[in-house]
Write a structure and sequence with these properties.
The chain has about 260 residues and is an alpha/beta fold. It has 8 helices and 8 strands; from the N terminus they run H-E-H-E-H-E-H-H-E-H-E-H-E-H-E-E. The longest helix has about 30 residues.
């Protein structure tokens, strides 16, 4: 009988062990700003994080640029918040804020790399072997750069999504950790009941068309077919359809529905 690992408990053990020591460095692969919001808020208490934006599975260059820009905007907001909190607490003679500042590294936009690993897997269902190959593509590059940069750990925001196979992601991450001789931070937390600087609802609002529609050419075609046939798809609503308290401007779109 196989033992089911509790990845969250393993992560909690690591964070508990480093609370009273110096903060390790973490090279964090991010798929997009919304998914990274809670991960950053939680892990920046314990790690000095560098976000690595590398997603060659995005088919459109314009979409890719929007996601990169939004990722940078989110990080800038977190850093501004950390500085303000630290200044306020220091001025009051209190303990300094424990949210470390966040850096970002933008990877190359290499859609050809995705096309190469997806060959022969075009007909695989969502969440199948094509997705696993895509996980491996991004995690290998993350592990390789983490090793080259001398980071203590690497991990990904992909496990935060209920649409992704967290166990498979952690398995692939551990394989590359052994191959490249660096630590893999196992994660599992899901985007439910998130609170803090960015609520769950707010974290899903992003400038530009941040949706799964742009993930892969195969997925895009399938979703277009579903729209025509009326089958359920990854739904989006323009900001004019969103509660005004959440919609910051008319260019924002919210992910409201999932496959």
């Amino acid at each position: 009988m196989s033992v089911v690992r509790n990845y969250q408990k393993e992560l909690d053990k690591i964070t508990e062990d480093i609370k009273n020591g110096s903060a390790p460095t973490l090279f964090l692969h991010s798929c997009c700003a919304p998914c990274s919001s809670y991960v950053l808020e939680y892990l920046r208490q314990f790690f000095r994080i560098t976000v690595f934006y590398y997603n060659p599975n995005i088919t459109e260059a314009q979409e890719y640029r929007k996601r990169v820009a939004e990722q940078k905007r989110l990080i800038a907001a977190y850093n501004a918040y950390s500085r303000e909190a630290e200044q306020a607490e220091t001025g009051m003679g209190q303990e300094q804020n424990k949210g470390y500042l966040i850096d970002i590294v933008e990877g190359d936009y290499e859609p050809a790399c995705f096309y190469e690993i997806a060959k022969g897997l075009e007909q695989c269902p969502e969440g199948g072997e094509r997705c696993f190959a895509c996980y491996a593509l991004r995690l290998q590059e993350t592990a390789k750069r983490a090793r080259a940069g001398g980071y203590d750990y690497f991990t990904t925001t992909l496990t935060i999504s209920p649409l992704k196979n967290a166990a498979k992601l952690n398995e692939i991450g551990e394989q590359f950790a052994k191959e490249y001789g660096t630590g893999c931070l196992l994660t599992l937390r899901r985007k439910t009941g998130i609170s803090g600087l960015w609520s769950c609802r707010e974290s899903m609002i992003c400038t530009g068309r941040i949706t799964a529609d742009a993930c892969t050419p195969v997925c895009s075609v399938r979703r277009n077919v579903r729209r025509k046939t009326g089958r359920r798809r990854c739904g989006i609503r323009k900001s004019s359809q969103i509660d005004g308290s959440c919609a910051k401007n008319r260019d924002m779109i919210m992910m409201t529905d999932f496959l």
